[in-house]
Amino acid sequence: MADTLELELEPDWGRIDTSSSETARFLTERGVCMDSVHALTMVATELLENANKYGSFRDPNARIRYRVTMRGSSITVEVEHPVNEHRADDLGKLDQMIQWIRSFQDPFQAYLERVKEVSAQSLATTDSGMGLVRIAYEGRSILDFFVDRQNHINVSAVHLL
């Protein structure tokens, strides 16, 4: 049986900390160990930041849907939001980054490689790509995504306890 925290959020950077705190409370109340609580709170923060950064919120009713689902020995963090159709290359970059992370046997190796790449970038570069690598390594989570028929993207991170 699944136990779920579900939130519908306005695209507001100020709601990220509140949502992360709600995640920590939800997980702590269910007896999840503090290492996993900290890891999943970071995962939530990274995914919500990406939703705010890359989502399409021209419609004033557009929202970010956020779920944390505990099922058996896994916890899944999901963030869903409208896709910005004018930034279709973002979906390709997301897919490319997830596949790149999966190409490593150990997410720590992907993390080290990404740190090397970022350290070689110009200081003017604004997109490090570290968030997804942090989710895989520090969050000990498996990333995936899909785009539905309503042009919403759902990005998930599965953490095994």
Describe this entry's structure for a reader.
The chain has 161 residues and is of the alpha+beta class. It is built from 5 helices and 5 strands; from the N terminus they run E-H-H-E-E-H-H-H-E-E. It has helices spanning 15-29, 34-54, 88-102, 107-119, 130-137, and strands at residues 2-9, 64-71, 74-82, 141-147, 152-160. A 5-stranded antiparallel sheet has the order 1-2-3-5-4. It is globular, with a radius of gyration of 16 Å.
Q: Describe the strand arrangement of the main beta sheet, using strand numbers.
A: 1-2-3-5-4
- List segments where confidence is low: pLDDT < 50 over at least 5 consecutive residues: none
Q: Describe the sheet with the most strands.
A: 5 strands, antiparallel
What is the mean predicted local confidence, pLDDT? Answer: 92
* Structural class estimated from helices and strands: alpha+beta
- The radius of gyration over CA amounts to 16 Å
Helices, by number, come to 5
- Give the distance, in angstroms, between the N- and C-terminal Cα atoms: 16 Å
Strand content: 25-35%
Instruction: Tally the beta strands.
Output: 5
Keywords:
161 residues; 45% helix; alpha+beta; 5-stranded antiparallel beta sheet; 5 strands; globular; 5 helices
